[in-house]
Amino acid sequence: MKIGIIGSGNIGGSLGTHWAKAGHEVLFSSRHPEELQSLANAAGNNAQAMGIKEAFEANADVYLLAMPFKAIDDLAKTYSAQYANKLIIDATNPYPERDGEIAQTVRDANYTASEYTAMKFSSAKTAKAFNSIKAEHLRDRAFRTSNKLTIPYAAQDLESRYVTKQLIEDMGFETLFLGNLTDTQIMDPEQAIYGKSLPHDELKEMVDSVRMY
Ligand SMILES: NC(=O)c1ccc[n+]([C@@H]2O[C@H](COP(=O)([O-])OP(=O)(O)OC[C@H]3O[C@@H](n4cnc5c(N)ncnc54)[C@H](OP(=O)(O)O)[C@@H]3O)[C@@H](O)[C@H]2O)c1
């Protein structure tokens, strides 16, 4: 698949590198693409660096959102024609101290952060994944054949569910499907499974026990 990485720091850099290693075509992007050249070089022949605009214009199959939450509104508005009917995988988290008022609004709202993203990127299909596990575990625990960590995820429809699951498995993590985007509250900052890096059964047990109440 062709995967556009929107924001290529701790999260986007690691995930893009893993996907390139797994054989996907990876477009690392940020507002300063000249700073991403060494990342793209290290990721190998399947990866390249470019600006955000070029990434959206490159007709990728999937876009990973791995930039600060506060950029969602602008990106959603500017590139709505380019990402229409594509899959958006949202790895962002709203942090008021970094993202300002919009993050506090979303944290206080009666919808989840991923529903906010889906509402903004409304011409795409949205899935939520990778936001609840620590950056160093995403970077260092991929491609394990045993003691795999589990990435919880949720998706808007069957196709986005299937593709997201496959992309998680391609980098050697296990998956735990949580449902649709209304079910992702437990992944949001300070909620039950936020920051948890666990094997499948332990994570499932935690999710099940939270959902019993
Ligand atoms: N760190 C974690 O443990 C963790 C775990 C899961 C999820 N997350 C979430 O994942 C996202 C990225 O976190 P990170 O730790 O990878 O951050 P990071 O290392 O600071 O990287 C952010 C990336 O986004 C780019 N960026 C910044 N502002 C942008 C904008 N307005 N438009 C487009 N790109 C922009 C940055 O490059 P330029 O400034 O050059 O554009 C950089 O490439 C955040 O929403 C974070 O909450 C973080």
Structural overview:
The protein contains eleven helices and eight strands. It has 213 residues and is α/β, with parallel strands linked by helices. It has one domain: NAD(P)-binding Rossmann-like Domain (Rossmann fold, 3-Layer(aba) Sandwich). It has an eight-stranded mixed sheet with strand order 3-2-1-4-5-6-7-8, sandwiched between helices. The longest helix has 13 residues, at 158-170. The termini are far apart. The model has no long low-confidence stretch (mean pLDDT 97). Residues 6-12, 30-32, 52, 66-69, 71, 91-93, 95, 130-131, 134-135 line the site of NADP nicotinamide-adenine-dinucleotide phosphate.
What distinguishing features does this structure have?
single chain, 213 residues, alpha/beta, Rossmann fold, 8-stranded mixed sheet, 11 helices, 8 strands, binds NADP nicotinamide-adenine-dinucleotide phosphate
Q: What's the rounded overall pLDDT mean? A: 97
Strand order of the largest sheet: 3-2-1-4-5-6-7-8
**Fraction in beta strands:** 15-25%
Shape: globular
At the third CATH level, what is the topology name?
Answer: Rossmann fold
- Helical percentage: 40-55%
Q: How many beta-strand elements? A: 8
Structure annotation, total helices:
11
Largest sheet: 8 strands, mixed
CATH hierarchy, class: Alpha Beta
Q: Runs with pLDDT <50, length 5+?
A: none
Radius of gyration: 16 Å
> Architecture in CATH?
3-Layer(aba) Sandwich
Secondary-structure class: alpha/beta
N-end to C-end Cα span: 40 Å
